[in-house]
Design a protein that fits this description.
By secondary structure, this protein is α/β, with parallel strands linked by helices. The protein folds into two domains: 29 residues, no CATH class; 87 residues, 3-Layer(aba) Sandwich (Alpha/beta knot). The protein is built from four helices and six strands. A four-stranded parallel β-sheet has the order 4-6-3-5. The longest helix is centred in the last third of the chain and has 16 residues. The chain starts with a strand and ends with a helix.
Length: 118
């Protein structure tokens, strides 16, 4: 689900970056307010990945149906997601790095959810 997307799913750059999976995976997009309402209506726990949190992503119970929210690499997540998130979590980093590639961050949180569920 893409909330308030910047790029169109049919954009050649999106298709190339997704390695074509936009054609194989169900994709939905809408304004952030509608996405939040849909997630709440379906009982998902909203987990927001942000470097501004004190809570580690490994400390959150990800065994329940969850929506993992990651932001754009340049802008992070909007303040609206911080307000509606059930958990705002960070990924630990060392040195001068203050953020990760969005795909890497998402993969780590999704892997943690999978680890907790097996």
């Amino acid at each position: 689900i893409s909330a308030t997307p910047v790029a169109d799913w049919g954009n050649p750059n999106v298709i190339r970056a997704s390695k074509g999976t936009v054609f194989a995976v169900p994709v939905a997009a809408g304004p952030t307010q509608q996405v939040v309402a849909w997630l709440r209506e379906h009982g998902l726990v909203i987990v927001v990945a942000t470097p501004d949190s004190d809570e580690l992503f490994t400390s959150v119970d990800l065994t329940r149906p969850s929506a993992i929210v990651v932001g754009a690499e340049r802008a992070s997540v909007s303040s609206r997601w911080h307000e509606v998130g059930d958990h705002c979590v960070k990924l630990p980093m060392r040195g001068r790095i203050n953020s990760l590639n969005v795909a890497t961050a998402a993969a780590l949180v999704v892997y943690e959810a999978l680890r907790q569920r097996t």
